[in-house]
Structure formats: structure tokens, C-alpha cells
Amino acid sequence: MSFTVQEIAVALGAKAFGATSLSVTHAAEPRDAGPEALALAMKPEYAEALGAGRARAAILWDGANWQDLGLEAAIIVARPRYAMSGLTQLMDKGPQIAPGIHPSAVIDPTAIIGQGAAIGPLVVIGPRAEIGPRARIAAHVSIAEDAVIGADALILQGVRIGARVVIGASFIAQPGAVIGADGFSFVTPEKSGVEAARETLGEGAGPIGPQSWTRIHSLGTVEIGDDVEIGANATIDRGTIRATRIGRGSKLDNQVHIGHNVEVGQDCLLCGQVGIAGSTRIGDRVVLAGQCGVSDNIFVGDDVIAGGGTKIYSNAPAGRVLLGHPAMRMDKQLESYKVQRRLPRVLQSLHDEIAALKKAVSKTGESD
Predict the structure, then answer these.
(1) How much is the pTM?
(2) Active-site residue numbers?
């Protein structure tokens, strides 16, 4: 594939300068860019690296003088990272999934396959499942009975979609994602040690006697809105009775785990290894950075942002910015961290002062 500088500028909604008919075949970092590459020099600090490369065209930061940088053509963007989204969409060839249905696919005769769908090798689609128009399903995907997949879905290798799962349009699932496995829900005939610990917070609960765990089956399902993306090896458990829900526009990174009955709002961003325990509700536009953990049966309000490794044990008000373990307001957490770092020096100073006072008192006693 090749693109002219002008074609790229139009795709980005940006302005091109110089020899806009110049063609490029790929994007590259400034130092590595050859004559056929579009160099990505979107900040002033990349100017030196751009000079070390051989690029003829580049995407530059707002205010850059492209001619002084020795370029033949340039695209100037106001918001570089947003420009990256348009550029990568334009240049991404996407997975190669042949049109039509591969001969090795196993599709139940009662399943409904939408017009223009592409279904790859060794895909299994169960009874009464519905696959929307123009959906693309890569090799080794399994879609269980009564599942519904919306239009323009892209489901990559090895994804597992369980029974009765309902997914909206423009869905993307990265390899190995599992949607609609049973929830992790078990109970004991008598009060368990876990229940006693919750009630007493560990005080006076007594010894835990013999107990065995009995499964609570998951009768619910998973419902996913339009324009949702699920990362590689992410897992979303079905609800016990009602559905586990993921709202429109939300994006889940690799290895995210969503427990049974969880409700995630719209346009949320859940980064790698986030875990949300059962029956918790997450508001709209919530951002949870990598390895955040959220306890069960709580509510995280709209627009909450939690930094990496944050552990949320209680309800979080809307708009709160959190950090730490346990979660605190980010400004308070950073203040507390600074105090902790100073604490050894403070304690040493106190120790020295006390030692000096003891010595002074001892001398005073000797003089008496």
C-alpha cells in the first residue's frame, strides 16, 4: 500500500505542505525513517532524530518549520496522539480473513449468518446463534447457542463466546478472550469461614470447621453494547440471574477480569490486569489503570480515574481521582507517600534528640 501526503492529511483532518503528491508506504520513527516512510516527529524534541534519518515527509508538531527541517512535504497536527489514531486506522491492513465461510467451519443449520460475513477455519457456531452482517470471525473461534453478535464485529483467533451472550455492533475481541463463562459463585451448607470473617472482621470468629463448597450455577448471561473492545485473554463472567453488562464504547485491555453481575458503564477504559469483583457497578467514563482491583458489591461513580495498582474497597464518589492501596484521593495519597519517605529521618532525629535529653538529664543527676 502507498498513500500520498495529501491523502493522509485528509484522513487526519490536517493541513499538508510542500510536495503533497509525494507517496509513502509506511510510518516510522524519525531516526529509522527512509525515503519511503512517513516520519512521526510530533514533538520538538524529535527534530534532531529527524535530521539523522532520511525521511522526505513527516507529521510534525504545531508550529514546526518543515522547510528548515529539510523535508519535501509535511503534515502539521495540533493533537499528535489523536492524529496517531487516524493514521494507524488508515494504514492498518487488518487481519486477513477470507470472505465467505471456510469449508472447515462447523455451523449449526439453525444459526443465522448475516450478509457479507467472513468466517475462518475451524470456527464453531452453535444452534440459533445470530451473526451480524459483515462480521469477521477468525480461526478457532467458538460461539455457543443463542448468542447474538452485531454487525461489523471483528472476533480474532481463539475467542470463546458463551450461550445467550448478546453483543452489539462494531465489536472487537482480541485473541483468547472468553465472554460468558460461569461466574465464580460457591456456598456452604452452614455459615462459612468467609461469612464469619466478614461479620466479625476476624475478631472472635473462632476456628473454621470442615466445610465443602457447593456451586451456584450461572443462569444469566453477558450483554455488551456497541463499539466495545475486549483485549486478549480478558474474561467476562455471565451473571447469576441477571446479565453482566458492558456499556457502549467501553474498552477492556488484556487480562482484564469482570466478575459475575458486574455492570460497567459507557466509554470506560479498563487497563491491563484490572479485576472487578462480583455485583459491583462502574459508572460512565471511568478509567482504571493497570492492576487496579475493585471489591465486590460497591459502586464506582462516573468519571472516576484510578492510578495503577489502586485497590478500591468502598464506594467511590463521582469525579474522584484515586491512587494507592487502599484507594485515597490522589493528592492525599501522594502527600502521605512523601510523609512516609521522610519518616525514617524524622524518627532518627527524634531518637537523637531523646538520646541527647537523656544524656543531659543524666549529667544533671550526677552533679546533684
Answers:
(1) 0.86
(2) 260
